[in-house]
Write a structure and sequence with these properties.
With 143 residues, this protein is α+β, with helices and mostly antiparallel strands. It has helices at 4-25, 67-71, 80-87, and strands at 92-95, 100-110, 116-127, 133-142. The protein has three helices and four strands.
Length: 143
């Protein structure tokens, strides 16, 4: 049951919301027309947003890599573009003076109220100054 005080507050909030909606919808109907000899400004094109990075090629819950995929990583031949194509956008990129490192990680959990980690994976891929694969490391724990 609503108290009288609560009912008044609800009514006041409803009226205030109605007034705000009506006020936001009101516009002036008087429009000014420019003189006939006034120059017409060209419309300004809307800015184009930067493209979003491509989504990861792995599905949710999928392993980062398997033995067949890891065997395709060849030091001195595999490029950064090859790695991004196979594994998607890295979660971290670490830059140092002579090495660039891509880090991919994933954890798979289960449970609704009490989350339990079933598997944790991490793939670290290092590149030389020419952008070619120097070495990589794949770690996992769990099922």
């Amino acid at each position: 049951m609503l108290s009288v005080r609560g009912g008044r507050g609800l009514a006041a909030a409803s009226i205030m919301g109605l007034l705000l909606m009506v006020g936001a919808g009101c516009k002036s109907s008087a429009q000014s027309t420019p003189p006939a000899d006034a120059p017409v400004a060209a419309p300004v094109p809307a800015p184009v947003p930067a493209p979003a990075p491509p989504p990861s090629l792995r599905e949710s819950g999928a392993k980062i890599a398997d033995e067949a995929t890891l065997s395709q990583l060849v030091p001195g031949k595999t490029t950064k573009a090859d790695v991004r194509e196979r594994f998607g956008v890295p979660q971290e990129v670490v830059l140092s003076s002579s090495i660039e490192t891509f880090i991919y990680f994933r954890d798979r959990t289960s449970g609704l109220f009490r989350r339990t980690t079933e598997r944790v994976e991490m793939l670290t891929v290092r590149f030389d100054t020419q952008g070619l694969l120097k070495d990589f490391e794949y770690r996992f724990a769990g099922k």
